[in-house]
Design a protein that fits this description.
homodimer; 397 residues; alpha/beta; TIM Barrel; five-stranded parallel beta sheet; three-stranded parallel beta sheet; 15 helices; 11 strands; 37% helix
Amino acid sequence: MDIEDLILVSVDDHIVEPPDMFDAHVPDRWRDQAPRSVRMEDGSDVWVFEGIKVPNIGLNAVVGRPKEEYGWDPTAYTDIRPGCYDHVERVKDMNLNGVLSSMCFPSFVQFCGQLFSKAKDKEMSYVMLRAYNDWHIDEWCGSHPGRFIPLSIPPIWDPELMAAEVARVAAKGCTAVTFSEDPSALGWPSLHSEHWDPFYRACVEHDVRICLHIGSSSKLVMLEDAPMDVLISLQPVNSIQAFANVLWSPVLKRFPDLRFALSEGGIGWLPYALERVDYVYQQHRFWTKADFGDKLPSERAREVFTFCFIDDKAGVAERDRIGIDNITWECDYPHSDSTWPHAPEMAMKHFAGVSDEEINKITHLNAMKAFRFDPFQHIARDAATVGALRGLAASGG
Amino acid sequence: MDIEDLILVSVDDHIVEPPDMFDAHVPDRWRDQAPRSVRMEDGSDVWVFEGIKVPNIGLNAVVGRPKEEYGWDPTAYTDIRPGCYDHVERVKDMNLNGVLSSMCFPSFVQFCGQLFSKAKDKEMSYVMLRAYNDWHIDEWCGSHPGRFIPLSIPPIWDPELMAAEVARVAAKGCTAVTFSEDPSALGWPSLHSEHWDPFYRACVEHDVRICLHIGSSSKLVMLEDAPMDVLISLQPVNSIQAFANVLWSPVLKRFPDLRFALSEGGIGWLPYALERVDYVYQQHRFWTKADFGDKLPSERAREVFTFCFIDDKAGVAERDRIGIDNITWECDYPHSDSTWPHAPEMAMKHFAGVSDEEINKITHLNAMKAFRFDPFQHIARDAATVGALRGLAASGG
């Protein structure tokens, strides 16, 4: 395949939410209580919600900056690339990078909307959460049909409300929801708990995939006195843990059709992890009583999960050990691991010797299937390639 | 290569220490204070040391048992295979399994001799620790030249004593010492700390390799309410963490010639981990100020570490991405992950398409080099093969 002919659908990017996001989506009587962006005396922008202040520029939105500036988290909208928070500018940046479609995770409300769970007034908070999802689905995604895969955040403080919200947004085409890789780390019951069953049931009923993003436990692996590089290197460990924790969970017995996406966890560890769970099953099932019926744990994993990578030579080379139908691709715009604006060139480095059919699965077909998302309802296939999108960017279109 | 011609040197097995181990190695005036094995009323055997009681059968010594009984930790010597604690029987079990040589880790004193650090009387405790090492080196290993790679435990409460002990046992040929994968988890300074410099300096001076065994932080990855299978599946995560923590550590700047072995951590995660640290270096070194000079982190890792595996198809298949000179093999006798007595058959499964030269590196040459251990000083090469050893076992020799 030629680089111009790649079709790239990214299952993990990030939004820095814009100041006006709630304006059109909160009913009048609640308007005064909506989170608002405030410029502080030190020049930083913060969100204020029920007295809680949170930085509004999450997780180093450093795209487009020289690498020397990484690590210094920008703190004001004026410091960051408009594509971080403006959907029209985002689409232009996607064109420049040859990316057809993108799933975008939240920033200031945290990965599974933790901020809304901290409000004392939960009725108000639920209003704001729905406004957030409406803004994301109707405005950010809705303004550009075929360019964004909608993703909702859950009212994590109440599993019945979570179920209701899954149903509500499913009705307008949202097929993905963020959840926590380890809710127990956030003070909630573990993901194994029946506490979450209403939510899980709704996800199955509406065929909605649960996305577990690294860091969605608000916890990263950290070792005492370790250099920052250790923390960054070990980020994928969160996904390794979530993979094992979900795979052996009684939840998959209660809800066999539940489906998960591991977001930003990489894929190169999977040949080993899939082999490891089979070995553990072979050696230990007689006393742990684990039971996968007529399947191996690795086979079950391939039914349950999709995985994704940014830049992962070993993973792509060993795609047969992972499962070619389970691998998706991501860009991670605008974070510091992102390959923007060279994503197609980076991706092509891994695709030598990979068949066109396999490349298409990895770059877009698997993501389209997992999230029941069809950009070609809106965009012609030949207008969806890297070459066409970059041509569009070059022409200013 | 034919299975009969394999030469297997295992860098990770375990001793269940025998009751009489201290008898010949503690000076008379200290004899009463040596740890002693006591049979309890419930039929279990425990070690008693300065009032502290510890089970003497560590970490499921289940070798030879049906898998249905795994998980039930045997508690008395009479419950376990004599090869667990008797070196003559151990050698017979090694012959039966075609294993030429073995490095054995401690059990009741814990992986880095933590038990001795808990004694109030440290002078006495230091006597016992040296007796432990003397027993291990002179008696367990010394009775069977060429069959065991000696490994010492350190007086972890005092880095100057650690240095002295490294020097003392190096003089009698001990080239390996256990340490903690994360000493901060045991209440000591982190492995990055200058606190340990006397120890590190002695290891460099005497060319002694530091072994970091999974679990040597007395900490395993555990997630709330998770089935036991999750814990077992995630054991290698300890080694992934130790790998990153050592590689980026300022310790390797202070002691460039320091060398580590990651014990029982597997190898299949390394193609990804090595790629990941290079990616982190490429993306983040400008602000983290990490500096590997003219090398990549992955290249430095191949200088610093040896890795080992029990059963690891993906790792062996991807040996070029790991580094053929860095891979060693282990049997893990008598623990539940062990391949005994079918280790050669299990190993051969992975060796299709692997050259004889590569097989020899993996099965024994790399271990011999890493630990400066030469069994062929004592045993003829053609008597060291799986075929010859198993023949010896069959003949009762």
